[in-house]
Design goal:
Length: 218
């Protein structure tokens, strides 16, 4: 029976892996740069802008990603002002991006606040513009400081991609569930667990190399 399980699981896993990796990559590519913008707006001296960003971050961090997925997919259809129904994939990408943008924004905000204000003053004495100072001097240090926290969120994102099953999208976890139900076997979950561990191992290695690259600031 185990061979039958593998014969059914492998092709379904490969198809599901495309969804898992797609959600993971698009979320990272969009949310990381967007989160830096949100972090800067959160630190704005304009109290209205800062409060709006603070409220957004609070809501995203204070509610489960699963609930956000369901609200965007099912809830928007019933909002009279909007009345628009997102497709499954639109709901997934929107929910993941706005959720992780909020988490990354707080990480970047903490990293920016950790930099001594004296560095801005020193750069100003040297005649450097604030923009040049931020991009060339501050940001490399911020990135170095936040990499461990970013890495934790990246690993969490890999596991959170399994939540897309709630909208009927076939990721690798749904593949395991389908095979497990068909053959009344728990082994598909074990195999998929190994797949998640393999993905995490690769990401951990990549993130460690990135962290080492920024160690020249130490």
């Amino acid at each position: 029976m185990e061979m039958n399980v593998l014969n059914m699981l492998i092709p379904m896993t490969l198809n599901g892996l495309i969804i898992t990796i797609g959600v993971f990559v698009i979320t990272l590519v969009v949310s990381i740069p967007l989160s830096l913008v949100v972090a800067l707006l959160r630190m704005s001296k304009n109290k209205i802008v800062s409060s709006i960003m603070g409220g957004y971050i609070y809501i995203m961090r204070g509610t489960p990603l699963l609930l956000q997925l369901m609200f965007i997919f099912f809830g928007f259809h019933y909002v009279p002002v909007i009345g628009y129904a997102f497709s499954r994939y639109q709901a997934i990408f929107i929910a993941f991006i706005i959720n992780y943008t909020a988490y990354f924004a707080e990480i970047f905000r903490g990293g920016i606040n950790s930099i001594d204000v004296g560095q801005y003053e020193g750069a100003a004495v040297l005649g450097l513009s604030r923009t040049h100072t931020f991009i060339k001097i501050i940001m490399p240090q911020v990135i170095r400081n936040v990499i461990p926290s970013i890495a934790n969120e990246v690993i969490t994102l890999v596991k959170d991609t399994s939540l897309v099953y709630i909208l009927g999208v076939s990721d690798i976890l749904k593949a395991a569930k389908a095979v497990s139900n068909k053959y009344s076997s728990f082994s598909p979950y074990i195999y998929i667990g190994v797949v998640y561990l393999a993905i995490t191992a690769v990401l951990t290695r990549v993130l460690n190399r990135i962290e080492n690259k920024f160690n020249y600031f130490r």
